Recover the amino acids of this structure.
């Protein structure tokens, strides 16, 4: 009986050493893969709404509409045109 306890203890120590080197997961779990998280979130409407909102925000930040630059200098006319940012962060045209 003592030999079995010693064998289990030694096996645990060997497996912990292997886990420390990153070879296996023994006591600590790796966690869910992104596929597992997606499967869990499929049934949760709140998670779907958050996922949609995050995707829309990512697209909004990465895709800018084609527009004039915020600063335009006309050397011939001797004028500088600067677009100001509005209260909501959107740029607005200067008053004409």
């Amino acid at each position: 009986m003592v030999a079995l306890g010693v064998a289990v203890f030694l096996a645990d120590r060997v497996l912990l050493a292997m886990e420390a080197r990153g070879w296996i997961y023994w006591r600590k779990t790796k966690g869910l893969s992104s596929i597992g998280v997606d499967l869990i979130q499929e049934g949760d409407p709140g998670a779907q709404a958050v996922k949609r909102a995050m995707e829309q925000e990512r697209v909004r930040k990465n895709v800018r509409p084609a527009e004039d630059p915020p600063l335009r200098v006309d050397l011939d006319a001797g004028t500088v045109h600067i677009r100001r940012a509005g209260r909501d962060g959107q740029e607005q045209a200067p008053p004409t």
The longest strand covers residues 71-74. The CA atoms of residues 32 and 88 lie 38 Å apart.
